[in-house]
Amino acid sequence: MDLHDQLKNLFPDHQESEPEEVQEEDHVLFIQKEPMICKFEKRKGKATTIIEGYEGTDEDFKILAKDIKTKLSVGGTFKDDSIIIQGDYRDKIMQILKEKGFKVKRVGG
Questions:
Q1: pLDDT for 108
Q2: In what order do the strands lie in the sheet with 104-107?
Q3: Does the pTM exceed 0.70?
Q4: Residue 109's pLDDT band (cuts 50, 70, 90)
Q5: Which of 14, 39, 97, 99 is close enough to 107 for a disulfide, judged by CB 3.0 to 4.6 Å?
């Protein structure tokens, strides 16, 4: 006797229903004409990469920050209309942003 048979014995009036399929829709980011700025700074002796200049909504910028952090497997934050990534990942971040259709300008070093 399997689990379904046991449940039918316990609840004979229960009608089984098909599980609903949830469709996830991809969020489309706002692609701007002006280039985003990708710069390198040292904060408290630690290397950080800062991305600024996004003109879309804050929610889109947060989604972009999360995507960059997961692709690079690094820590970071979204603060004061900028993405702060731990470490010097300018080249990789610029490549990710170009693949998404953004224009990126490298500043500093």
A1: 74
A2: 76-79, 82-86, 46-52, 36-43, 104-107
A3: no
A4: low
A5: 39
Whose structure tokens read 């390198």? 40
Count of beta carbons in the 10 Å neighbourhood of residue 106: 14
What is the secondary structure of 60-99 as a DSSP string?
HHHHHHHHHHHHHT--EEEETTEEEEES--HHHHHHHHHH
Separation between Cα atoms, residue 97 and residue 35, nearest integer Å: 10
Structure tokens at 5: 């048979």
Q: Could you give the angle at the alpha carbon of 69 between the alpha carbons of 96 and 50, nearest 5°?
A: 75
Contact 47, 87 (CB under 8 A): yes
